[in-house]
Amino acid sequence: MTTKIAVGLVLACIAMPGLSMAAGQVAAQNERPAKSEAAPEYTQAQIALYRSNQVGMLNKNEMVTYSFIRQGSLETPLEDKASISIVDMDQDGKKNIVVDFLSGDNHIDMPVFEGFKLGNPILMVFLEHDVKEMSELTKGSTLYFRNRIHDGLASPNMTKVEPISVTIDEKKVEATLVTVKPFVGLKEIERFKQFEQKSYQFVISPHVPGGVYSIKTMTPSQDGNPPILEEVLQYASRSKS
After folding, report:
1. Phi, psi at residue 38, to the nearest 5°?
2. Global confidence as pTM
3. For residues 52 and 50, what is the distance between their CA atoms, to the nearest angstrom?
4. Angle made by CA atoms 72, 73, 76, in degrees to the nearest 5
5. Where do the domains of the chain lie?
6. DSSP for 23-78, written as a single string
7. Cβ distance 158 to 152 under 8 Å?
8. Strand (E) or helix (H) holding 99
9. Within 13 Å and on the Cβ side, how many CA atoms surround 38?
10. Residue 162 dihedral angles phi and psi, to the nearest 5°
11. 3-state class (DSSP) for residue 172
12. CB burial class (10 A; 0-12, 13-18, 19+) of residue 104?
């Protein structure tokens, strides 16, 4: 059984301030400033993840594939894959993108992301998968977890942004590592104490097709043993779709 997700909530609560819309309206809103005298201010983390043209090097009928690995004691281990496909592109470089995320019971059903230019929708779908999983494990609200991730990325004090290098096609290239622990010190997290130290790591690079090299979530054990839950999505290949 696949899962259908409300795209507007994903974008509004995790990605960019002030968004609440269908996937087809994403890019137009991304490129317009807020209806105020000044455009919204973004943190370094938000700019790296959602305000850069990550899909710019991709053309119509191209696909980027990612590997997905889950391990740890909280969930059944899983090896699967995800992909984004450019199904159309206009003269301004805006793209219609189909996201195929995991398979079988783990599959997330998303509508086409139309007119997309900033960011990469695989980030948003991964995070929606993440909050859904946390909600199922804790019986907590998906909205609560979405909001905490959004707040973490929107706070310079809660994020760390640093330059690193990664290897792609046997070459070392420059990349940016964004790390956030959105649940540390929150009063409400006492209900979900095992997730307080959960970390999110995003590796972004303009040299990687689609811009996203990897996304990793890690929930450490409280007794020094291996992590109780770890999930990694990593760039695998670029091909014709």
Report:
1. -125, 145
2. 0.86
3. 6
4. 80
5. 3-240
6. GGGHHHHHTSPPSSSSPPP--HHHHHHHSS-TTTT--TTEEEEEEEEEESSSS--E
7. yes
8. strand 95-101
9. 3
10. -145, 150
11. strand
12. exposed
